[in-house]
Design a protein that fits this description.
single chain; alpha+beta; Aminopeptidase; six-stranded mixed beta sheet; two-stranded antiparallel sheet; 4 helices; 28% helix
Length: 192
């Protein structure tokens, strides 16, 4: 599958220079990078202390190792072109079944699956250069190719304008955080 390309202008002291990046579908060899991006995303949003990054990375790697081969988690990576040629961002979607429901406007049923966009992350030095938008457009195109029309996400404050520009709208979703049954002693997952 061909990647989406974007030339991002970077203003230097001698005028505008151009650095480019390409977006490609992630593979199993990208699992550690994807897990690092997820931990970095939560850290940058102020929701994960640095001391807990390694634990989240390990748990995320285990999840991706299981979910990616089954097609339950799809991801894309943005790589810079030319020296040094490093990964500069990523985005993913978790595909999950949903109960049939009426589609708005009425007249059809939604049968699923539903895609939840997760882990949209761009390295700090590449932010505000179109990387996240290019990644999201690739995600949306891939979901359209698969016939998936129900797409949800939880927007960070920094990402909200981008998602609204792409057509996402606020919904009536609510959240309840309950105490964990059995506590950490029983081996239950920790809330991060």
């Amino acid at each position: 599958m061909l990647g989406y390309w974007c030339d991002g202008g970077v203003r230097g002291t001698g005028g505008v220079t151009t650095r480019s990046f390409a977006v490609r579908e992630a593979t199993g060899s990208d699992i550690q990078l994807l897990a690092r991006h997820r931990a970095s995303m939560f850290r940058d949003m102020g929701k994960l202390p640095t001391s807990e990054e390694a634990e989240l990375q390990r748990a995320t790697e285990a999840y991706f190792t299981d979910a990616m081969p089954r097609g339950e988690y799809l991801a894309w990576i943005a790589d810079s072109i030319g020296p040094p040629g490093a990964a500069i961002g990523g985005a993913g979607v978790q595909l999950r079944p949903i109960l049939p429901r009426p589609r708005i406007p009425a007249g059809e049923l939604e049968l699923g699956p539903e895609a939840i966009v997760l882990n949209v992350y761009v390295e700090p030095e590449w932010r505000r250069r179109g990387v996240a938008e290019t990644l999201m457009r690739r995600v949306l195109a891939a979901l359209a190719e698969r016939g998936i029309s129900r797409i949800v996400l939880h927007a960070s404050d920094d990402g909200r304008r981008l998602y609204e520009r792409l057509g996402f709208a606020l919904t009536n979703e609510m959240q309840l955080m309950t105490p964990q049954a059995g506590g950490a002693e029983a081996g239950s997952a920790r809330q991060i």
